[in-house]
Amino acid sequence: MYWEWKQNFARPGVYPGSFLVFWKMNRHHRPLQEFSMPFLKLPEKGRVLDVGCGGGFFIASMLKRAPESHFYGVDYSPLSVKKSRSFNHRAVKRGQVEIVEGSVSSLPFEDAFFDLVTASETIYFWPDPAKDVREVARVLKPGGMFAVCCDSADKAAAKKYTDHIRGMTVYSAEELSAFFSGAGFVNVECHSDSATGMLCVTGTLPEKAGAGN
Ligand SMILES: C[S@@+](CC[C@H](N)C(=O)[O-])C[C@H]1O[C@@H](n2cnc3c(N)ncnc32)[C@H](O)[C@@H]1O
Asked: pLDDT tens digit string along 160-187?
C-alpha cells in the first residue's frame, strides 16, 4: 500500500492521499530548488516555464526573484494543475502565472516562446527524455536556458525508489548532459553538491546565427 501511494510522485492522483504528496513535494524539494536557483538565468521581464510543476512551489520561489516576469507551469496530472494554481492563486488571478495541463512530449506552447524552462524532480518519469528535451528546446527562444534539477543522479542509491515506482528512471550526470547536447544545447554544465548528491544541469540554446554573439 505504501508503494502504491508513492506512485503519486510520478503522477499525483493515481492513488488516494495525493494531498500529502503535494505537501511533501513542496517541502522536500525546496533545498534542491534553492541549490539550483543561483545557476538559473531568470529573465528580468520574460517568460519562464516549469515542466512537471507538481505543487507549484518552484514557480512561487522564482516569481519572488523575478517579480516582473510571466510564469507558466505544465503538468500531465490534473491534480497537480489544480494544486499549482491554488498555491499561486494571487499571481494566477492577476494573470502573471498560468498553469496548464499537458505532457512534456507535446508542450502546448508555440515555438521560441520562453526565456527559461525548468524541470525539478520530474525527468525521471518522462517517456523519452532524449526526445522530450528536444521538445523543450522547441519552445525556448535562441539563447534561452533549460535547467533540470534532480535530488539524485546516483542510480545505485536511487534503486530503492526505481525498483518500486513504475516508470521511474534515474539518469547520471553524463546521461543528462547527453540529452542536452543531443537537443542542440551548448554550454552544458553539471552543478552538483557532493554532500547531498543534488544536481542541476543547465544548458543554453545558441543565439540566432548572425545575432553577433
Ligand atoms: C515528483 S513530482 C515533482 C513536482 C515539482 N516539480 C517539484 O519539484 O516539487 C513530478 C511531477 O512531474 C509530473 N510529470 C511526470 N511526467 C510528466 C510528463 N511526461 N509530462 C508532464 N508532467 C509530468 C507529475 O505529474 C508530477 O506532478
From this structure: 889 988 889 999 999 999 999 999 999 9
**What average pLDDT score do residues 55-73 get?**
98
Sheet with strand 199-204: strands edge to edge: 97-101, 70-75, 47-51, 114-120, 140-150, 199-204, 186-192
**C-alpha of residue 121 to centroid of ligand 1, in Å:** 7
CB under 8 Å to 144, separation ≥6 — which residues? 112, 114, 115, 116, 117, 204, 205
With CA atoms as reference, report the closest residue to 82 among 102, 95, 101, 62.
Answer: 101
Best probe residue, ligand 1, of 22, 72, 84, 122 (max atoms within 8 Å of C-beta): 122
- Return the closest-CA partner of residue 72 out of 64, 124, 52: 52
pTM of the predicted model, to two decimals?
0.95
Domains and CATH numbers, the chain: 2-37+45-204 (3.40.50.150)
pLDDT at 213 over 70: no
Residue 22 has pLDDT above 90, yes or no: no
Determine which residue's CA is closest to atom 25 belonging to ligand 1. Answer: 11
Contact 78, 13 (CB under 8 A): yes
